[in-house]
Amino acid sequence: MTRAISLHDLSKTYPKQPAPAVDRFSLEIPPGEFLVLLGPSGCGKSTVLRMIAGLEDISSGELLLDGEYANNLAPGDRRMAMVFQNFALYPSMTSRQNIGFPLRFEMPGEDQNPRVEETARILGIEEILDRYPGQLSGGERQRVAMGRAISRHPSVFLMDEPLSNLDAKLRSHLRAEIARLTRGMGVTTVYVTHDQAEAMSLGDRVAVMRGGVLQQVGSPRDTYHLPVNVFVAAFIGTPRINLLQATVLAPLGGGMWIDFGRQRLGLPEPLSLDHQMLRIQQGRDIIVGLRSEAVRIAAPSSAHAGEVVLSGIVEHVEYQGHECLVHLNTGAKPAVVPELEAPRLPAQRTRSAARRAAAGPGGLGKLARKAAGRFPGLLQEPDGAGAVKVLDPPPADRAEQPTGDLVVRTGPDIRVRPGDRVPLLVDLAHLYVFDNTGRRICPAPAEQPRLE
Ligand SMILES: Nc1ncnc2c1ncn2[C@@H]1O[C@H](COP(=O)(O)OP(=O)(O)OP(=O)(O)O)[C@@H](O)[C@H]1O
């Protein structure tokens, strides 16, 4: 049994809160889909989940279950099972009693043991059925919590960061188990997380939220390759996408360049349609996004079609075993996305930079708050597209030292050292351009009229 969930302009405003925690959220979740709600802390993910579960009143908008109006349906009548981050097990009950507890109400008078044992077999927890939560590891507790959800044969699973209290190895193991279980059962699942890697590996689709507003919903591949705005681009992908401030130069005589200040990137002629569209940005601030795999360290003579030349000074090489991440300074100004951490920390910190970093995220938060103060309305736009303004890093940083603005992924055997100037080849097929409100303009959004 599985079901469709429709959210139409769902909003939630908590008492005494000026801004809605969830703002006109619309989404169709077909039966059997594994949908992940992804976003930074406080963006409203749990509130959406709780409204679906019936644990939170809906301020406005409509919730439909299999096409039927369900705003006022009691939680117990929704046939949904929820799994929480803190496991929420009864400490005085054994695993068997915890798993069987909801069945007492669903199948009164019946023997629950066969259902409990079937569930335990699916989860491989037969051995721990007679232990109490205090006698279980974190992973075992979460399996019991999952068992309690599964044993009810629900039509929807709602999972609120179910793995975030577990260590990395167990997380990845249980992640695979959740994917196997939910797909096997074919039950519609809504899964909340702020971990983009988890979202990408689990979701049929990922819905990215920011400040209560849905930014983009799509397959993991689409959200990675075609982010609608700079926020989604920066939130998804590790290492984070390189975001650089730039302007477009398109003199009347022809040619087009993306100007980073100290270097320019020439766009090859004839210009592609997407690049022709950039002409209207002439003289305006833009943000260029380059994922770490879109740039390689190689001589200009080895450029393939579609690759253009830049150069950078190596600041730091991060050896990762299977690859290296090379931090470079190209002389460009990094763009900062409010609500996410600041741009990358400089590779070679001065003492004052290290002090600032040691002071924790407050300084970065302050930067974002300062930005929000300088550009009112900047953190959220009425149409939900999400304006994301480019910010200059604090001047003191720049005066003290050059900051790495570009991270490039290379093979593990790269032989470069801090201070080396290296040639770079940028693959234009993987170059993103965002306008000064943060919207992606290149590659052009599908709905945009094209110059044909
Ligand atoms: N009961 C409440 N009363 C008032 N404000 C609330 C309440 N619950 C949540 N909020 C606020 O609503 C906003 C969204 O909260 P929510 O828990 O949905 O975010 P989230 O994205 O799930 O965050 P996290 O990942 O940290 O759990 C936050 O600003 C939060 O402080």
TrEMBL record:
SMART domains in alphabetical order: AAA
Ranges for domain ABC transporter: 5-236
GO molecular function, one term: ATP binding
Transmembrane stretches, start-end: none
Family matches, as PROSITE patterns: ABC_TRANSPORTER_1, ABC_TRANSPORTER_2
Record keywords: ATP-binding, Nucleotide-binding, Transport
Annotated Pfam families: ABC_tran (PF00005), TOBE_2 (PF08402)
The keyword ATP-binding is assigned to this record: yes
Identification of the protein by name: ABC transporter ATP-binding protein
Organism name: Streptomyces fildesensis
